[in-house]
């Protein structure tokens, strides 16, 4: 159940800890402890914010994934239903990366029972690949982790993008797409 | 002797791989606009017996060359040369480059110092060779797959990568291993006098041909072609997976080729829309991108069948959505071409 709130802050970070299911960030002394993509490449922890820390990207606050018992630090999209603090929102800001460019529908669930589909579009995290959907690069690393070495001339990217909430009703949850190519690191809701 | 073919166009598409990258460089060398040629065709063809564990695998009908398959609306063709050994392999590539023709050569990333997989992971990859210096024992190579590389490497390294047995060593050797490189290289021919103009007539004819092929594509015994073949293939592969068969490598490679084709066609439709000032074509290009994005998802779902993470239901749901969007786009393309 979603606890209603009367006055959501202008921009509220969403705690995704319960949904984290993929370890995509590793330290240099633990290269084999994650697998962001099917080849077990990972982002370098040394070039990203500390776990659980608050960061501001392009003026938007995000909470980087907190420590998780499994080591997971992102949500691999698989139709998870994510409750949000009930409220009116204009935008859902997203930190995400994809195993090759893709797009899919996010289903927005409203308090009155209505459901709208909106698009979540994410470019490839792979180095030397530009944004295709007009995202900004939230974190552009300078190295890519392989399970047995660090590739220092390849920089993977976590993108910042946003999903619109056009319906002027209270939002209560969002259903992520069933698309394992999309990984979400953080979500922030911007009030209407 | 020392020679270098200068000012080659380097090219990469985010949803395609080394095959299209190399083909683009070679086509541009011959005066063919890469996107105009490589993006014009869109279809589906699969022949299980023809599947190869190579990054540059692409399904070709028997008797139709790889380049003619990639660029079916242009007067181009190619031939795989399969030299008997490494010495003969280098002699043939050397002769082509000395004669002023860059070529694509198959390599094992495990042997190439500029690849992240160097001395780690085997893979069956493709790069362009466009120069050599016999006194220094080096060759000039272009590889636009990240990390992009354009420069000299020792000939002995290239030869080792071309002569590799591409053995499986460990669990990261997926999809493109256990398939000897065999010193093969790709020879390309272009009938430059017959290159088409990229005008409304060409665009219309290419789209009409593509749509017709989706609707009426002949398929021989064991082949899958056109929209019906695509639907049948995806249904059958899910059935096989549901009863416990291994489909990971096969579906991953099939999806990778299908993804590249429709992604390039999306950009080609957008290009046609801009050149011809037809907004409907740009919109069709965006709809084609949507098909590509389905294939991205399906490709990763396929990879995750290896450990059973992906369910048969997920595969079915995705390919059903893909086919619905694809049918809608084919209908729209028919309407658009009628107005061109």
Structure commentary:
The complex is a heterodimer of chains A (192) and B (340). With 192 residues, chain A is mainly beta. Helix content of chain A is 0%, strand content 44%. Chain A has one domain. Chain A contains no helices and 16 strands. In chain A, strand 4 (54-57) and strand 5 (60-63) form a beta hairpin. Chain B is globular, with a radius of gyration of 20 Å. Chain B contains 10 helices and 9 strands. In chain B, 46% of the residues lie in helices and 14% in strands. Chain B has helices at residues 18-29, 34-38, 66-70, 86-98, 155-162, 200-215, 226-242, 248-275, 279-303, 312-339; strands spanning 2-4, 45-46, 76-81, 103-108, 124-133, 138-143, 149-154, 185-190, 224-225. At the A-B interface, strand 9 of A face helix 9 and helix 10 of B.
Task: Record keyword descriptors for this entry.
heterodimer; A: 192 residues; four-stranded antiparallel beta sheet; globular; disordered N terminus; B: 340 residues; alpha+beta; seven-stranded antiparallel beta sheet; 10 helices; 46% helix
């Amino acid at each position: 159940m979603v606890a209603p709130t009367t006055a959501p802050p202008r921009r509220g970070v969403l705690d995704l800890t319960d949904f984290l299911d993929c370890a995509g960030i590793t330290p240099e002394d633990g290269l084999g402890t994650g697998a962001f993509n099917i080849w077990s490449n990972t982002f370098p922890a040394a070039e990203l914010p500390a776990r659980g820390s608050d960061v501001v990207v392009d003026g938007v606050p995000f909470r980087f994934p907190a420590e998780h018992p499994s080591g997971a630090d992102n949500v691999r999209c698989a139709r998870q239903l994510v409750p949000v603090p009930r409220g009116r929102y204009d935008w859902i800001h997203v930190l995400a990366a994809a195993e090759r460019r893709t797009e899919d529908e996010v289903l927005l669930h409203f308090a009155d029972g209505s459901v709208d589909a909106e698009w979540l579009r994410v470019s490839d995290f792979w180095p030397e690949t530009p944004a295709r959907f007009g995202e900004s690069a939230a974190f552009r690393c300078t190295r890519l982790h392989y399970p047995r070495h660090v590739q220092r001339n390849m920089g993977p990217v976590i993108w910042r993008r946003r999903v619109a909430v056009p319906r002027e009703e209270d939002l209560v949850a969002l259903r992520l797409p069933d698309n394992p190519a999309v990984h979400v690191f953080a979500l922030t809701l911007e009030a209407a | 002797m020392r020679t270098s073919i200068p000012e080659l166009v380097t090219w990469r598409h985010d949803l395609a791989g080394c095959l299209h990258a190399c083909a683009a460089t070679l086509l541009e060398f011959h005066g063919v606009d890469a996107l105009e040629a490589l993006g014009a065709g869109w279809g589906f063809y699969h022949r299980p017996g023809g599947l190869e564990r190579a990054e540059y695998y692409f399904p070709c009908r028997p008797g139709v060359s790889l380049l003619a398959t990639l660029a079916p609306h242009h007067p181009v063709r190619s031939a795989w040369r399969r030299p008997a050994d490494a010495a003969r392999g280098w002699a043939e590539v050397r002769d082509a480059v000395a004669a002023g023709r860059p070529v694509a050569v198959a390599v094992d990333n495990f042997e190439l110092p500029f690849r992240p997989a160097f001395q780690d992971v085997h893979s069956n990859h493709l790069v362009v060779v466009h120069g050599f210096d016999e006194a220094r024992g080096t060759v000039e190579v272009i590889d636009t797959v990240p990390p992009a590389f354009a420069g000299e490497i020792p000939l002995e390294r290239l030869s080792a990568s071309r002569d590799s047995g591409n053995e499986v060593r460990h669990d990261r050797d997926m999809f493109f291993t256990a398939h000897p490189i065999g010193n093969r290289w790709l020879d390309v021919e272009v009938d430059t006098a017959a290159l088409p103009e990229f005008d409304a007539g060409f665009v219309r004819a290419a789209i009409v041909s593509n749509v017709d092929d989706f609707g009426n594509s002949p398929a021989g015994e064991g082949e899958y072609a056109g929209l019906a073949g695509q639907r049948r293939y995806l249904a059958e592969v899910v059935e096989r997976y549901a009863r416990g068969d291994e489909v990971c490598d096969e579906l991953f490679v099939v999806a990778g080729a299908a993804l590249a084709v429709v992604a390039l066609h999306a950009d080609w439709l957008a290009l046609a829309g801009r050149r011809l000032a037809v907004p409907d074509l740009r919109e069709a290009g965006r709809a084609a991108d949507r098909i590509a994005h389905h294939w991205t998802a399906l490709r990763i779902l396929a990879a995750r069948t290896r450990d059973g993470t992906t369910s048969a239901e997920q595969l079915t749901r995705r390919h059903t959505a893909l086919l619905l969007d694809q049918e809608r786009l084919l209908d729209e393309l028919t309407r658009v071409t009628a107005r061109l």
